[in-house]
Amino acid sequence: MKGLIISNISNSYIVKVDNKQFTCNAKGKFKKDNITPVVGDNVLIDILDEERHIGIIKEIRERENYLKRPKMSNLSQIILVVSCKNPKPDLLLLDKQLAFAEFLCMKPVIILNKMDLANDEINKIYKTYSQIGYTVIKAEAKNDIGVEEIKKILKNNISVFSGNSGVGKSTLINSIFKDIITAEGDISKKNKKGKNTTTAIKLYEIEKDSYIADTPGFSTFSIYEIPYHELEKYFIEFKPYLKNCEFARCTHQKEENCGIKQAVESKEISEDRYNRFIKIYDELKDKEEHKW
After folding, report:
1. If you ran DSSP here, which 8-state letter would residue 140 be given?
2. pLDDT at residue 189 above 70?
3. Distance in angstroms (rounded) separating the CA atoms of residues 153 and 246
4. d(Cα 224, Cα 236) in Å, to the nearest integer?
């Protein structure tokens, strides 16, 4: 029977088959082949006990994509939640996530949460990413503002919420479901950093073929799968200007005849985005050169 893995705790998987859920283990061959089923996998299962809803996963269908951290597959979009304040916006993290979403061919959507705390900087962030072409939604999760707009983009997708701890991912999900399905965490008043409250990954069904997942909070985001010399491809506003670079392997840093640098100078590309590109580029290059 065909099913979808909607939850995983240790080596036990909850697989949704039509309107039923089965608790399944995975066949030993997966371990032998060094493959581990993950949430989001489309699988084939054998039913071992129909009455007790117990089965075994015998096949993992081909994945559209695979996210190593947190371990998930077949995601169609990433909802990137940015807090306007407490914690302050981490745009370096956001740009890493956007680049990684492009790398994995997933649609990114940016949520600017806690808009009641917004200032001129937040309005600048909204303008910058909207002009690039990204979907940016203003929200106040506590007051249900922006929730209906978010619901629309979640239809017929498997979406994952991502962002620093404390930005309001769990509160947004609770607002969408009108129920407390994730534990809301308080921001530490002492250090203004979010405390991680979500400990497991689970797909929640909004409606038929529409799922969202809350993920463990994290303050770093590994994008080391991206070759540093290809990072330019995943800053989407760079693409029209790459043809103006004199060298095929232009680093967009020291070269004189660089289309990207020229676009920054003429304000066609955000200087702030460009500076963060350089930071990420150098980080990826350093990691690749010292990986052994």
Report:
1. B
2. no
3. 40
4. 18
- 56, 23 contact by CB (below 8 A): no
Whether the CB-CB separation of 6 and 16 falls below 8 Å is answered with yes
Euclidean distance between the first and final Cα of the chain, in Å?
A: 44
Residues 35, 43 contacting (CB under 8 angstroms): no
- Whether residue 89 has a cis bond before it, omega within 30° of 0: no
Q: Where are the alpha helices (DSSP H) in 78-145?
A: 91-103, 120-132
For 100-138, the pLDDT digits (tens) are 999 998 999 999 988 888 788 889 999 999 999 999 999
CA distances from 229 to 65, 108, 129 (A): 22, 22, 23
Rounded to whole angstroms, how far apart are CA atoms 242 and 221? 26
Could you tell me if 90 and 82 are in contact, meaning their C-beta atoms sit under 8 angstroms apart? yes
Torsion of CA 145, 151, 154, 155, to 10 degrees: -160
Rounded Cα–Cα distance for residues 77 and 147 (Å): 17
**Using CA atoms, how far apart are residues 198 and 165, in angstroms rounded to an integer?**
9
Can you tell me the distance from the alpha carbon of 75 to that of 160, in angstroms, rounded to the nearest whole number?
Answer: 7
Task: State pTM to two decimals.
Answer: 0.83
Rounded-to-integer distance, Cα 287 and Cα 23, Å: 40
Strand, helix or coil for residue 183: coil
